[in-house]
Amino acid sequence: MTALIKIPKAMKEVQTEIRKLVGSKKGTVNEDDIQNLPYLKAVVKETFRLYPPVPLLVPRETMHKSILEGYEIQPKTIIHVNSWAIARDPEYWENPEEFIPERFLNNNIDFKGQDFELLPFGAGRRGCPGIALGVATVELVLSNLLYAFDWELPCGMNIQDIDTDVLPGLTIYLYRIGEAKPLH
Ligand code: HEM
């Protein structure tokens, strides 16, 4: 929501998509609607890319000796995968620090653990078992907040004042305040 408020064009695009599909009579966005909202899905993916709630994956331990980019890694080495850094690596992402949902509209990159440049839920045997619940919750809550309310900054605050930096930790979080106006 913070990223969307900072980029009014993206906010307008996603709200228009949702309101056009759902109309004004139904009252809520449901799971079937979500499947027909590609821009909303792109917004959610871009949010998971730039702000992965769990920036370091569960630690792994190597079973065999291996060579990675010329480095020899001994068996039983603890490996920490920094999915935050991977998702902002300029080798894989154009303008990696910018919030651009459109980057997901014309490709199949997903966060299900097959595309290693985007791992907000990890990958492999220790990948997140709650991914379906996590994604459904985020998509449903966000889409309904966007459908029902217009969002604006508190009086006196400008878009430039929005700081999207996050606090370091096992999970990331930011403090951001918006004001909601109910839709008529
Ligand atoms: C947006 C929501 C969520 C995000 C971003 C998230 C992210 C993650 C990540 C990155 C991992 C580590 C995966 C790895 O190291 O490969 C993980 C593990 C895990 N998650 Fe989630 N998760 C979310 C929601 C949930 C939910 C809703 C549940 C349960 C209902 C859940 C249960 C777990 C469990 C049990 C593990 C440990 C798996 C293991 O170590 O084998 N997560 N999650």
Automatic annotation (TrEMBL):
Family the UniProt entry places it in: Belongs to the cytochrome P450 family.
Entry binding sites for heme: 128
Name of the molecule in the record: Cytochrome p450 83b1
Cross-referenced PROSITE patterns: CYTOCHROME_P450
Gene name of this polypeptide: CYP83B1_3
Cofactor: heme
Signal peptide (residue range): none
InterPro entries: Cyt_P450, Cyt_P450_CS, Cyt_P450_E_grp-I, Cyt_P450_sf
Native source species: Nicotiana attenuata (Coyote tobacco)
GO molecular function terms noted in the UniProt entry: heme binding; iron ion binding; monooxygenase activity; oxidoreductase activity, acting on paired donors, with incorporation or reduction of molecular oxygen
Superkingdom of origin: Eukaryota
This protein's UniProt keywords: Heme, Iron, Metal-binding, Monooxygenase, Oxidoreductase
UniProt key word Transferase: no
